[in-house]
């Protein structure tokens, strides 16, 4: 079984609601990604770290929150989009 790291559409949908982003067009605009790029990424196509960083910035989360590894057990959702605690 191929173990591929993908940006998970379901996670993106949840994070869009949290960020009050209603459409993929709005997400593409806020992230600075072309609509076609976003569509490909959400369909499981390849992406680079820059794409994940742009999406995470628009969704106010970590790029890790967007990803799942196909072929591995699903991670705990309780940790999804938990902000870092400052050590100040």
Overview of the structural elements:
The protein has 88 residues and is mainly alpha-helical. It has one domain (5-72): 434 Repressor (Amino-terminal Domain) (Orthogonal Bundle). The protein contains four helices and two strands. A two-stranded antiparallel sheet has the order 1-2. Helix 2 (24-31) crosses helix 4 (49-59). The radius of gyration is 13 Å and the shape is globular. 23% of the residues are buried.
Q: CATH-wise, what's the superfamily?
A: lambda repressor-like DNA-binding domains
Global morphology: globular
Unreliable spans are 84-88
Question: What is the H/E order?
Answer: EHHHHE
Distance between the termini: 44 Å
Give me the side-by-side strand order of the main sheet: 1-2
Number of strands: 2
Fraction of residues in H or I helices: 40-55%
Q: What is the strand content?
A: 5-15%
Query: What is the CATH top level name?
Result: Mainly Alpha
| Main sheet characteristics | 2 strands, antiparallel
| pLDDT averaged residue by residue | 83
| Shape-level CATH architecture | Orthogonal Bundle
- Counting DSSP H or I runs of 4 or more residues, the number of helices is 4
How many structural domains does the protein architecture include? 1
**Structural class estimated from helices and strands:** mainly alpha
**Over all CA atoms, what is the radius of gyration?**
13 Å
């Amino acid at each position: 079984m191929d173990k591929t790291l993908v940006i998970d559409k379901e996670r993106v949908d949840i994070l869009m609601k949290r960020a009050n982003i209603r459409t993929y067009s709005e997400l593409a605009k806020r992230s600075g990604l072309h609509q076609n790029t976003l569509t490909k990424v959400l369909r499981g196509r390849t992406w680079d770290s820059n794409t994940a960083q742009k999406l995470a910035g628009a969704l106010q989360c970590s790029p890790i929150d967007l990803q799942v590894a196909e072929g591995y057990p699903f991670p705990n959702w309780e940790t999804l989009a938990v902000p870092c605690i400052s050590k100040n």
